[in-house]
Amino acid sequence: MPMIDIQHISKWYGNFQVLTECSTSIEKGDVVVVCGPSGSGKSTLIKTVNALEPFQKGNIVVNGLSLNDPKINLAQFRSQVGMVFQHFELFPHMTVLENLTIAQIKVLKRTLADAEKKAIQYLERVGMLAHKHKFPGQLSGGQQQRIAIARGLCMDPSCMLFDEPTSALDPEMVGEVLDVMVQLANEGMTMMCVTHEMGFARKVSNRLIFMDEGKILEDCSTQEFFQNISARHERAQTFLEKIQAVH
Prior knowledge:
Shape: globular
Distance between the termini: 38 Å
CATH class: Alpha Beta
Mean pLDDT: 92
Oligomer: single chain
Structural class: alpha/beta
Low-confidence stretches: none
């Protein structure tokens, strides 16, 4: 059974269809990059995977839990699916340590001692332990994003979703966040990542999904995507040419 199974997902905002019959499946340990032009539905698709965006047709099954199950507990479901956002989404009035323990205590019902132990383990892992008593506003963007990754990992998720995790960062800080993601990928974490970082896609992902206008136009191995450009959908070819011209 795949870790993430996306089955014929369609979604509308009023009369406007943002996703059309999107299907793909992600196996345990896969690192899948979702790319495409702005407004192609990438972020919407990734947000449907942990039920942050409802969909009107199709189904999503993560680690055996179906979003169409009327009895589903969404908080429990989301604890299985770590999510890292573009703008960190940390609580500004809480310290780093509090940001990492609150969901563990509320959702997973861990004791404060157990939650703090887990938080410290992951802060150390992302190189942020020295900052545990600071508030998010005292940290750089790259540091905040590493905290956000640690927060996701504290829930012991079965997979991690990243929605443009480096796009709000200064170029100098992108590397420190990508390094943490590379490390996670090397350790076998199942990851689905919306990103424009094609260097990261090439180096770390094993699959690449290309979207445009709410449809999945390409879903192939990373090697295939980059090495055999002439065989790709013409929209993907144009996208790659533009991206390569920038870099």
